[in-house]
Design goal:
- By secondary structure, the chain is mainly β.
- The chain has one domain.
- The protein has one helix and ten strands.
- Bound molecules: zinc ion.
- Zinc ion (ZN) binds next to loops.
């Protein structure tokens, strides 16, 4: 059993279970709505995602964690046709401006609309060498939630 990092909230069950997260520790999927886990500077409150070791705003190294808003607006996106082995292509990669003021790079599912509202979800982004699904955080048009 993996032990979680000291200051990152990790859902061990999901990190160890099928499907595998591409990058465990970035998402708290313990509740009904998954949430991204950011860094939050204890000195100035600046957010970073993924969590920065040094605050990009004040250079403090005293960085805690926080949950980010699950809703945002799609700032821009591109369609990617080449990717590392095992990733599903083509896929949409976009920047989402979250409600708490941070811009996050993520897979965008569905039919992206710049300026449209999107919501965080978990999605399959690839297939592992053993055939298992590779899971990551994705954003979907908010109206598509089922
Ligand atoms: Zn700071």
């Amino acid at each position: 059993m993996k032990q979680p990092s000291t200051n990152i909230v990790t859902n061990e069950a999901l990190a160890d279970a099928e499907p595998h997260f591409v990058a465990p520790g970035l998402v708290d999927a313990s509740g009904p709505q998954p949430l991204l886990i950011s860094g939050k500077c204890k000195a100035c409150g600046a957010l970073s995602f993924p969590k920065a070791e040094v605050c990009p705003s004040c250079l403090s190294q005293d960085i805690g964690t926080a949950h980010l808003a699950s809703d945002g607006v799609l700032y821009s996106f591109a369609t990617v046709h080449q990717a590392p082995k095992h990733w599903i292509v083509p896929y949409h990669l976009g920047y989402v401006d979250l409600a708490d003021g941070i811009r996050v790079l993520a897979h965008i599912e569905g039919e992206p609309v710049i300026g449209g509202t999107v919501r965080l979800a978990l999605g399959r982004v690839g297939t592992g060498p053993d055939g298992s699904a590779l899971t990551s955080y994705v954003f979907s048009p908010a109206g598509d939630a089922t």
